[in-house]
Amino acid sequence: MSASAPVQPGNLLLAVAGGIAAYKIPELVRQLRRAGHAVRCVLTEAGGEFVSPLVLQTLSGAPVRSSLFDSGEEGEISHIELADWADLVVVAPATANRIAKLAQGLADDLVGTLLLATRAPVLLVPAMNVNMWSHPATRANAGLLRERGVHFEGPESGELACGWEGEGRMAEPGTIAGRVAILLGGETWKGVRVLVSAGGTREPIDAVRSIANRSSGKMGFAVAEEAARRGAEVVLVAGPCALPTPPGVRRLDVETALEMAAAVEHEFETCQVAVMAAAVADFRPANASLAKIKKEDLAPGAAPRIDLVQNPDILAGISATRGERVVVGFAAESHDLVEAARRKLARKGCDLLVANDISRVDAGFDTDSNAVTFVSPGGEVDELPLLPKVEVAARILDRVEKLREGPR
Ligand code: C5P
């Protein structure tokens, strides 16, 4: 949960589907209630095999529904009233079957009907066997739902209840509760234009080869998604990466640092906030060959010489002309994190530097979590614990909010 953003209590409809991870749901209900939310649970038929309605009813303090056609349950609160009541619908665990049903729009039971009837945002928390999660059908269904604006938390990697190892573990209750707080936060950034850069750049050597880096783009995409969820108008300048465009975000795909610089400089003119999470190549080959460099054209055993030239520093460039605009930079460091970040902040001249320790295996490149330290121009250092990238994104935007309100 975001420490700086107060939790906005809301009405949560929690749909529990039939997976072994349902054993964590009573704890989730407790945490959500403790955070001040009103919680109503609904069970799929299979969900009822894994967790007892009585436990959920006792912990949530509200009757639990499981059938669409039970006249007693429907008399208490109709399924449409329930769908309208919710500020957020959470499906946890979200099984492969549930994800498929929602992707196809099937309303053949209570949970399916509620998910189609509600106007509230939907958060799916998948949990399943690693092979089921990586099955092309599940990937396609999850991709379709993401495009429609459905939110996902996890799944995480690790030991699975089925005995396999891999991606498929349901997110922990604390992580889910944190995401709920973010999703209920409200559209407080309406009218704000936000520019985000993400991913690495690709600098061509010849027609087929290039210099690239390990950036996955996940951190920048999470910032773009969170800014859009807060109601901002978001433009995302993305280096080559396979991530889906977050809902409501305008995406500009670029390849090289020079292309990224041109797009960022153009968009920066009309925005109020810029978060530069891209891993921009510092150097590019001076004379990229338009044709493929062939081994046969060189002397036996010889290698081509590649001269490099420096790329422009995009962050330093926009920071120098920012005026009232807030600019956030990133730093990936492998040692002396804070000292290196302080020096970088001074060099770049931005308002906040988000420093990652890339020597950690559970944070940084291509992971879903990140452990970052905020470094401010005044010398203030704020070390955050290991958090999902969506939550790191929320913390960054909370900081930006403060910077926009207060003196700098
Ligand atoms: O200098 P370094 O690459 O470590 O700095 C990282 C920060 O600077 C990131 O915010 C990155 O987006 C930005 N950067 C940039 N232009 C460059 C290199 C990095 O904007 N040429």
Give a structural overview.
This protein has two domains: 11-184, Flavin prenyltransferase-like (Rossmann fold); 193-405, Rossmann fold (3-Layer(aba) Sandwich), CATH 3.40.50. The model is unreliable at 1-5 (pLDDT under 50). Strand 19 (372-375) and strand 20 (381-383) form a beta hairpin. It has 15 helices and 21 strands. The chain is α/β, with parallel strands linked by helices and 408 residues long. Helices cover 34% and strands 22% of the residues. An eight-stranded mixed β-sheet has the order 12-11-8-13-16-17-19-20, with helices on both faces. A five-stranded parallel β-sheet has the order 2-1-3-4-5, with helices on both faces. The chain has a two-stranded antiparallel sheet with strand order 6-7. It is globular. It has helices spanning 25-34, 47-50, 53-60, 71-76, 79-85, 96-104, 110-117, 130-134, 136-147, 173-183, 218-229, 257-268, 314-320, 337-348, 389-405; strands at residues 11-16, 38-43, 88-94, 122-126, 151-152, 156-159, 165-169, 193-198, 203-204, 210-211, 233-238, 249-253, 273-276, 283-285, 308-310, 326-333, 352-357, 369-370, 372-375, 381-383, 387-388. Helix 5 (79-85) crosses helix 7 and helix 6 packs across helix 9.
